[in-house]
Specification:
It is built from 14 helices and eleven strands. It is of the alpha+beta class. This is Cytochrome b-c1 complex subunit 2, mitochondrial.
């Protein structure tokens, strides 16, 4: 508890304000005296915003390729000379471009990021020779992973459009995407608010470096201006799907969705309550699912909060369909018990404490604080974890039961990937049709 309090204090101090920088950048940074620094640019360029399926995946793979100032090879060689690391990652809402480097080298790496924002070339030969092969490899690997495929299908069922768009490009259709499609998504993302988060550098210094570097790269040949983009409001639908797969272990996802932002703290507590993982490795967990999950089945609670929707559930993985069926029945039973108010005071206390710890510990690493603070920075909110911790702390048995009841009364999201001759249908594990 003391550690979490110290983290909240430091987080509040380091991310208390968001600085507006030209043109449309929102900057926040924290400097705790660490020997390395990092800068992450967060763009609204996730699959939710793409106008053609797969273009967000391709834009992500175009990161740090040729720009108006550097070739792709030049960027790699210079970054290696500085000892830094460049990377890109994406989710359904955002594309994150990150530079990690030794303290004091921020001018070069901010310039690399600004160059991609202001003057990317998006050449046809890089698309065909480097980008598409990487996209095909990632998409094929995702399709052969039953858990990954199950979560992809769960999003498509739960949200259909927007958040339901595939995170990975279809290898058979990616060749239809042109550099103009990629350039359009990039231009619309840069034309929308852009969040820039740093560590090991002050907010003011980062804002000044970004403004000067972006202005220097913004030339007549830079990405053309384009209107900002916004995704339609998310609606939750739910549904069931069973897909045959012979790749590796089988997977089953049982979950529900919500578009009520006020229920997010209770959903954090509910996901922690459902989490079967024990506090000590090899020990038996106290969560209701810990003893109900059969041997040979791996289970993890899933909580995916987005800007206007949340997907919560449990992902099961294993080789034996019978064991997966029993595990899935236990998950449905745990949801229904929570909805009926059968979560005891001690169980609730454990769930709240675990949810708070996961929130606090999650922002200590770079990826965690980018995921937690980035959307807040884009909205101009105070980027600290204190409000989230206080929200979870306020979850009561009544509020947890109400949120769970609202989920169970709605339509579930059920996905089974594996041997369709043996994997169960949704109604066979207790879910409504």
């Amino acid at each position: 508890m003391l550690r979490a309090t110290r983290l909240v204090t430091a987080s509040k101090r380091g991310f208390a304000t968001v600085v507006d920088a030209s043109p449309g950048f929102k900057v926040a940074s924290v400097d705790n005296g660490q020997p390395t620094s990092s800068v992450t640019v967060l763009l609204k360029a996730g699959s939710r915003y793409e106008s053609k399926p797969g273009v967000a995946h391709i834009l992500s793979s175009f990161a740090f390729k040729s720009t108006g100032k550097r070739s792709a090879l030049g960027t790699v060689r210079e970054a290696e000379l500085y000892g830094g690391v460049l990377s890109s990652s994406r989710c359904r809402e955002h594309l994150a471009l990150t530079a990690e480097f030794l303290r004091g080298d921020e001018a070069y790496f901010v310039d690399v990021l600004a160059s991609f924002l202001a003057s990317p070339k998006f050449t046809r030969h890089e698309l065909s020779e480097y980008v598409l092969p990487a996209v095909h490899s990632e998409s094929s690997a995702a399709a052969q992973s039953a858990p990954t495929y199950a979560l992809e299908l769960a999003h498509a069922l739960a949200f259909r459009n927007g958040l339901g768009h595939a995170l990975y490009a279809d290898p058979h259709a990616a060749g239809n995407i042109t550099t103009e499609d990629v350039r359009d998504l990039h231009a619309r993302a840069v034309g929308s608010p852009v969040a820039v988060l740093g560590t090991g550098i002050s907010t003011e210094s980062l804002a000044k470096l970004l403004e000067s570097s972006f202005s220097a790269h913004k030339t007549a040949s830079a990405t053309p201006a384009s209107g900002t983009h916004a995704a339609p409001a998310t609606a939750y639908h739910g549904g069931a799907s069973r897909v045959a797969s012979a790749h590796g272990p089988q997977a089953v996802f049982v979950g529900f969705g919500s578009t009520a932002s006020a229920s997010v703290p209770a959903l954090h507590a509910l996901a922690a309550h459902l989490n079967p993982a024990p506090a000590l490795k090899w020990a038996t967990g106290a969560a209701p699912l810990a003893s109900a999950i059969p041997a040979g089945v791996s289970a993890q609670s899933v909580l995916l909060p987005y800007s206007d929707a949340t997907l919560v559930g449990v992902l099961l993985e294993g080789a034996d369909a019978g064991a997966l069926t029993e595990g899935a029945k236990a998950v449905v039973g745990a949801f229904k018990d929570a909805a009926a108010g059968k979560v005891g005071k001690e169980e609730l206390g454990r769930a709240v404490a675990r949810a708070k710890f996961q929130l606090a510990a999650g922002v200590e690493g770079r990826e965690g604080y980018v995921g937690a603070f980035g959307p807040k920075v884009l909205r101009g909110e105070a980027a600290n974890v204190q409000a989230a911790l206080e929200g979870v702390q306020g979850v009561s048995g009544t509020s947890l039961a109400q949120v769970a009841a609202n989920l169970v009364k709605g339509k579930s999201t059920y996905v089974a990937v594996g041997d369709l001759h043996t994997l169960p249908y949704a109604d066979e594990i207790g879910l409504s049709a």
